[in-house]
Design brief:
190 residues, alpha/beta, Rossmann fold, 5-stranded parallel beta sheet, 5 strands
């Protein structure tokens, strides 16, 4: 199975590129953001807890995210693989994901890092907030999310490099060029 972690700061294009990857490779997509927004919209206890954390620019606890992902994976029948969008965000989550996949006789195939300069991220996210109405795409929350990303998530690059799974992609510029670079990176790991 093809198991991909797509990685990058908020606004780096993970969701956009994930859709293209899903279409090309016929794999399932798990966006932790979409899953959490669905829980929030449904008004579940998880949704209420998640909303409070998200409003403060904080991450969802690891054990909670792993349980959600495991349950989501179990819903996919005859899957060719999965792209994990927005997870893992910490080294502890990466270790938990590896353990969860290993129990299923699998592993992460490749980690795609989309690198985008911070000024461009801010511009993209503010524009997305205007277009989509997402409450977490405002300047104050974006700045908090970027601090959390640099402190807690960025160290994953080295973790995946040490695991032999990391592939760097310049996430600025033309969408099709970025996708072509991603395809080359994925195909190099098959």
């Amino acid at each position: 199975m093809l198991n991909i972690v797509i990685f990058g700061a908020p606004g780096s294009g993970k969701g956009t590129q994930s859709e293209k990857i899903v279409e090309k490779y016929g794999i399932n997509h798990i966006s932790t953001g979409d899953v959490l927004r669905g829980e929030i919209k449904a008004g579940t206890e998880l949704g209420k807890t998640a909303q409070s954390l998200i409003d403060n620019g904080q991450l969802i606890p690891d054990d909670l995210m792993v349980s959600i992902l495991s349950a989501k994976l179990d819903t996919f029948e005859n899957s060719k693989g999965v792209i994990f969008d927005g997870f893992p965000r910490t080294i502890a989550q990466a270790e938990a994901l590896k353990k969860m996949l290993n129990k299923r006789g699998e592993d992460v195939t490749v980690m795609i890092e989309l690198d985008v300069p911070e000024e461009e991220l801010m511009t993209r996210l503010l524009k997305r907030g205007e277009e989509s109405g997402r409450a977490d795409d405002n300047e104050e929350t974006i700045r908090k999310r970027l601090v959390v990303y640099h402190e807690q998530t960025a160290p994953l690059k080295d973790w995946y490099k040490n695991d032999g799974k990391h592939c760097y992609i310049n996430g600025s510029g033309e969408l099709d060029r970025i996708f072509e670079d991603i395809v080359v990176a994925i195909d190099s790991k098959l």
